[in-house]
Amino acid sequence: MFDDRYTLAFKLYPYTRSADQDVDSAVRHPVVVVGGGPIGLATALDLGRQGIPVVVLDDHEGIGMGSRAICFAKRTLEIADRYGCGAPMRDKGVVWNLGKVFQDAEQVYEFNLLPEEGHRNPAFINLQQPYFEKFLFEQICAEQEKGAPIQIRGKNRVDAVDAQDDHVVLDVMTPDGPYQLEADWVIGCDGASSPLRNMLGLDFEGRVFQDSFLIADIKMKSTEFPTERWFWFEPYFKSGASTLLHKQPDDVWRVDFQIGWDVDRKEELKEENIRARLDAMLGEDVEYDIVWSSIYTFQCRRMENFRKGRVIFAGDAAHQVSPFGARGANSGMQDVDNLGWKLGLVLAGKAPESLIDSYNEERAYGADENILNSTRSTDFITPKSKISHTFRNAVLNLAKTQEFARPLVNSGRLSLPCTYDGLSLNGEDALTGGPSRTRVGSPCPDAPLSEGFLLDQMGDGFILLTIDTDAPDSFEDDGITVSRLALSASDDPTGVLSERYLGDAKSAVYLIRPDQHVTARWDRFDSDALRQALRTACGKG
Questions:
Q1: What does the domain layout of the chain look like in residue ranges?
Q2: Angle (nearest 5°) at CA 109 between 398 and 75
Q3: Which of 324, 415, 331 is nearest to 367 (CA)?
Q4: Angstrom distance (rounded) from CA 485 to CA 456
Q5: pTM (global) more than 0.90
């Protein structure tokens, strides 16, 4: 259901005939991305900024219907900053760090997702997915003006795929009829239903939960609700077994009602029935318009392997989790961040093709972590037995007065970036007294410097971060260059850098990957140790 008066749709890339449609044989491209949603656009942006020619095929023309994903996490904004489009997202989005949990009419407790200082980005912004896509697309246009070899083809639907040993053949349908093209690599970003995945005979493994949730996006200007995440267990207004409320830009509010498994979806989506739930919650005197509505079920599933030969899957095409916790689009952006630099090195001949297997290793690990947290959230929100329901309510009652019980309350553990503990690309962790939060495999936390923030200084390549110790300004091994970022205590006016990267150490050297995960760390520079860690990070042993 959708009200066109408040459409957030953007016709970003209307169909135009491409040169590939006017040749007798299929044209070969280095990379073809299937799907022009947020993950497909981010993938094109990542690769195009590296100078890698990439073609995006989408069966629509950039029209995003409904707000869909709205919660974009700090890590996603850090990735967007590196791509060049984080600022407009922050400017448009609704910034929030606080959340409140209620049972019936009583507040159980509140939480702050980012209580510490020293970060450029907030814990989350709320931003309707079409806006998120629009800002990615506008950055693609800016990169195209600078020469980035990115093509986006609307109304180009992939109807068949032939995955061969060293390339992929795609049959594409357009308003002008069919044509064929080839790709060295294909990246499937075509969503949870993924026609591409189905064409290859691949499927998900995991759980589908027997419950239904009604989304209603409503536009209302006068409201008593602040810019916070509010979640009710067994709400007093009786509109569902649980309810979630978020504020979005343009005076739009997202409401999620838990409505049960055995429901008539068609009946529930009738406007008068949605309004009955909303009126019970808001009061009959509150004026609002329904912008968009939908019903979904919880699904916690993933592909067994995110790679099949020269076809790679990312985002919802590779894995699904429940919306509570905001792990869908945010984990998809981490997929892109992980895959982009690896595929770039392979295409440049600077890393073996086997490096792509580490994408599956690391992001399947991340998906399993998300699925575990999402499953736990779902089991807490929707108890499956009388005993589990009694336990859930006992925890909520304790949490009202006892701080130790609050970590047990799970209204949707919110998205955090994955730390790749113990995986194959990790190098040596030899920083004496180094902080746990920047251990090998972890994403780099931000920190304020005398001028700006740390993550802004790192760029897109391999970085050797040194703090109060000497090292060469650059280092090269087998065609890969590592640039040095030299800092000291004098660059650390707040002490945050030292806290997050030194701990009890007096000096530190970090090798950091292009996706800003820590590869290795030491007390001081050692060229042999760095060379070995760099080779490990690039899949060379």
A1: 4-92+116-206+300-369, 429-537
A2: 120
A3: 331
A4: 11
A5: yes
